[in-house]
Amino acid sequence: MFDFIRNHKRLMLVFLALLIVPGLGLVGVQGFRGFFDNSANVAEVGGSKITRQEYDALLKEQLERMREMFGGAVDTAAVDTPVLRRILLDSLIQQRILADEAKRRRLSASDEAVRQTILDIPALGALRKSDGSIDTEQYRELLAKQGMTPEQFDARVRRSLAIAQISDSIEASALAPKSSAEQLAQLSMQQRKVRELAFHPLDYSAEVKLTEEQLKQYYDAHQQEFETPETATISYVVLSAEILSASIAPSEDELKKAYQDNLAAYQTAKQVRASHILIAIPKDDAKAAPKAKAKAEALLAQLRKQPGQFAEIARKESQDPGSAARGGDLGYFSVGMMVKPFEEAAFKLKQNEMSGLVQSDFGYHIIKVTEIKPAQTRPLSEVKESLLSDLKKQQAAQRFAAAADQFSNLVYEQTNSLAPAAEKFNLVLQTATVARQAMPAPAAVPALANPQFLAAVFDSETLKGKHNTAAIDVGDNTLIAAHVTAHKPASVLPFEAVKQGVRQKVTLLQAAELARKAGEEKLTHLRHSKSVEGFSPVIQLSLAGAKGLTPAAVSAIFKADTQQLPQYVSAILGGGIYAIYRVESLSAPPAIEPQRLTALQQQLAQLTGQLELNAYLASLRARSKVKIYETEKAAAGE
């Protein structure tokens, strides 16, 4: 876990700041807009505004990351939450504070560092040409879709690298004493023998005697526990690219054209497998070239007499440490993977043919081609199914784009019914009951749990006027509109209807209190008597292997003073169970391996560095003037 934080933090800082991931369809961004009360900005840091556009871009990137992680499926209801909104906003605020601090410290990054960071971005992998460079035109087009020029993007990368210097310097300076690592290792491996004595509330429930007045008092004080949610019965229609794709059947001509247009994607370039012997020329010794050439020529003459000895001679004489041990074998490669002189010579050779001397920047090569894979093109019949699927998705997306405005207008104009929209687009008019507070939606219709959709359903105008909602964009090329047919406000169930449930709740609470009191009395007695009566058989456990015990129990057991055993400790478990643990003995852990101790010390240093960084960021924020534009509703987490 600590390694992951350390290894990926730098890239995460860069990526979060740059907002570079291309949008593939935005889910519920409009649902987040209600979080803020300022139309153009979401926050202010030291007089500098954080715009809504920046916020929406970060949200868009996060949703794309989630789609990548979960194979394209994202439950918007699980994403559109006050907690995530606050996390995203805090991330933007932190980036702005760090950027200001980097500017104050006059931190920057070199042109080479900026270039290398850009080249390492996975999203640009598809833009690479055969020589490893980036296709400039495609690069500009990709950035243009994000509203940026290459110069603006370079500036963002440079700023992000400058910011990363702050966090890196703090985390790199963190140290963890070896003694701390030893103590932690010993504690985690230490075995403790314990017994358990549990006091269950159910064993005391018979002692609980409740009056009608007590039940009524609990009911009056906890009415939210007995409230039925506000619900609406709706008819609704969904227009999506997926639905439209069901009626799309690309023709053979369209398939053939798409195949030809994307032929490069189905082609495999010619590859050769070659072995070589390298006699290197030291770069700092110009006089060594004639000697190297003479040695290479001697080896070449020997190989022409004994071509079957190529692998053996390569193992003995080749100065390429990467391939010499394999008899000079370089494996398969295609055009663009080797230096030009070597590549040109290799691709002119036939199978089992050997070259003359080939000079490159590395020295003199003798090349032997051992296998050749000719260029291949996968036939249409082989890729037809995947091509058909892609075509259907493309055409469905195009059809959806063309139909979206018509659908939205029709829902708005025919405000008293969704039937006209369903009929025009051949959609199924469905019914459902939804609650104002999002609940798990049917897997087939996740949009029913979309917060923006629910806000439209429970809008006062929709409920009072019995009008259609607007067509709500819930992402993934999907629109949904609803018409409320019945509305049921939230209400508290009458006391008589929930009286039995109230009795069960109060009985359990009071029984748990009785169990706790009995447990505490027993604990006091045990600390004097040291008895084992009533306890379970011995349980042997360690911090690393405490199966079946709750964190509260493990914490109590390992906090026990082991200087004088046995020791008695207690913990409150789930369901109000009061448990006493008798810590009887402990066994010293085995000797810790040096490698493990070093790794643990490094992990502790990383954790310490992260804590120090968090403290530093908190201090920066405390002295920065931060203002958040949020509505009272959003501030309350509603």
Biggest β-sheet strands, sense, barrel: 4 strands, antiparallel
Overall average pLDDT: 82
Shape: extended
The strand order across the widest sheet is: 16-3-18-17
Proportion in β-strands: 15-25%
The level-1 CATH class of the largest domain? Mainly Alpha
CATH topology of the largest domain: Triger factor/SurA peptide-binding fold
Q: What is the gyration radius calculated from CA atoms?
A: 35 Å
How many distinct domains? 4
Q: Please identify, by name, the CATH architecture of the largest domain.
A: Orthogonal Bundle
Query: Which residues sit in consecutive blocks of at least 5 with pLDDT less than 50?
Result: 1-39, 631-638
State the secondary-structure class: alpha+beta
**Number of continuous helical runs:** 23
Helix content: 40-55%
Q: Please tally the β strands and state the result.
A: 19
Termini gap: 33 Å
Keywords for this entry:
638 residues, alpha+beta, Chitinase A, domain 3, 4 domains, four-stranded antiparallel β-sheet, 23 helices, disordered N terminus, disordered C terminus
